[in-house]
Design brief:
With 382 residues, the chain is an alpha/beta fold. It folds into two domains: 255 residues, Aspartate Aminotransferase, domain 2; 118 residues, Aspartate Aminotransferase, domain 1 (Alpha-Beta Complex), CATH 3.90.1150. Helices cover 39% and strands 13% of the residues. The protein contains 13 helices and twelve strands. It is globular. The protein starts with 7 loop residues before the first helix and ends with a helix. The protein binds pyridoxal-5'-phosphate (PLP). Pyridoxal-5'-phosphate binds next to helix 3 and helix 4.
């Protein structure tokens, strides 16, 4: 069976270093907020080009704490995409704010800046773009709108670790006219808005061996708030100032991430190469719509759309042929039971949620394995 993700080759590549790093934490018994966390925060901030990097317990916590550190609170409206994992909207709702879902762009699956502008009200406080599947949103336009309306921007980078923004959005025809384009050109996702929120869930591009997350910001005051919020709202131990969280990045996870970080660009390139090969394999089938392999895209998922087919049957046929697949996401956030009564579905997002299917991808997936995947899919469609 070809699974959607095979983590074993990546671990095998660095196994000795990982074992030594874990052993080192155990030998030093610095399990909580030890030197490994501090070092990782320093190294990852440098890699991303962010002034501050703050380790937390998960990507969800990175969103919640990041937004709380920015002052997002009850009664605020936060504009986001329906086409994401539930943690995006959940983190907004958990703070008592209201997620306002605006539709996505067909070519990129990412939030549509034109729709953002239409949804702004006097209560709007922030925008949460999600760089879905590892592809940067149209950040120039989003930042332009945010500055015009004095809004905060929290980038959900759970799927985009190592992705960069080049103003080369598919929907802009490679020619973003925004004056912000040069300013942000080549920047890492998560360093353009006011806060970036990353997840180190094991299946993410930079995955730990358990839960983990990261907040980035260039704002000293926001960083101070976030650092305080992750340890029960205390700057000084046992002198708690506000209600916070118990949400720290484990030392063992930080040690593992330190070993993995120097490999991430190579691993992300491996994913992009695999995406190019899939595109060639599927070029002969007009019912398969493949993603463009644009610069900076890190292909957390390789998600295609399949037109005019029964997707359940297609998945069953793939399984029969020994090929795993996943649907990210079968139900857009605005249509989930938790919100259903509150929203009318966004039409593009609803349509795409019926057509998408994610295929096996990992950094070292071989052309041979991809060939098998493609063959099985093309056969199932014929
Ligand atoms: C994985 C994910 C999250 C949540 O991260 P966790 O570490 O699992 O809490 C948030 N947003 C998106 C888009 C994700 O894919």
């Amino acid at each position: 069976m070809i699974s959607v993700l095979d983590l074993k080759p990546e671990i095998a590549e660095i196994r000795d270093e990982i074992d030594a790093a874990i052993k080192n934490v155990i030998d030093n018994t610095a399990f909580i907020m030890g030197p490994e966390v501090k070092q990782f925060e320093k190294e990852v901030a440098e890699y991303l080009g962010a002034k501050h990097a703050i380790g937390v317990n998960s990507g969800t916590d990175a969103l919640v704490i990041g937004m709380k550190a920015l002052g997002i609170k009850e009664g605020d409206e936060v504009i986001t995409t329906p086409f994401s994992f539930f943690a995006t909207a959940e983190s907004i709702s958990i703070l008592g704010a209201k997620p306002v879902f605006v539709d996505i762009i067909e070519g990129s699956y990412n939030i549509d800046p034109a729709e953002i502008e239409k949804a702004i009200t006097p209560k709007t406080k922030a925008i949460v773009p999600v760089h879905l599947y590892g592809q940067a949103c149209q950040m120039s336009k989003i930042m332009e709108i945010a500055e015009k309306h004095n809004l905060l921007v929290v980038e959900d980078c759970a799927q985009s670790f190592g992705a960069r923004y080049f103003g080369n959005c598919i929907e802009c025809d490679d020619s973003c006219e925004s004056s912000y384009k040069d300013q942000f050109n080549g920047k890492q996702t998560g360093t353009i808005g006011h806060v970036g929120a990353y997840s180190f869930f094991p299946s993410k591009n930079l995955g730990a061996f358990g839960d983990g997350g990261l907040i980035t910001t260039n704002d000293d005051a926001v960083a101070e708030q976030a650092r305080m919020l992750r340890v029960h709202g205390a700057k000084k131990k046992y002198h708690n100032e506000v209600l916070g969280f118990n949400s720290r990045l484990d030392s063992i996870q930080a040690a593992i991430l330190r070993v993995k970080l120097p490999h991430i660009d190579k691993w992300n390139s491996g994913r992009a190469e695999a995406a190019k090969r899939y595109k060639e394999f599927f070029a002969i089938e007009s019912r398969v719509i493949t993603p463009d392999v644009i610069e900076g895209h890190v292909f957390h998922q390789y998600t295609i759309r399949v037109k005019d087919t029964n997707r359940d049957q297609l998945q069953a046929d793939l399984k029969e042929a020994g090929v795993g697949s996943m649907i990210y996401y079968p139900v857009p956030q605005d249509m989930l039971p938790v919100y259903k009564k509150d929203y009318t579905p966004c039409p593009v997002s609803k349509k795409l949620s019926d057509e998408v299917i994610s295929l096996p991808i990992w950094p070292s997936i071989s052309p041979d394995v991809q060939n098998k995947v493609a063959d099985a899919l093309l056969k199932a469609l014929s």
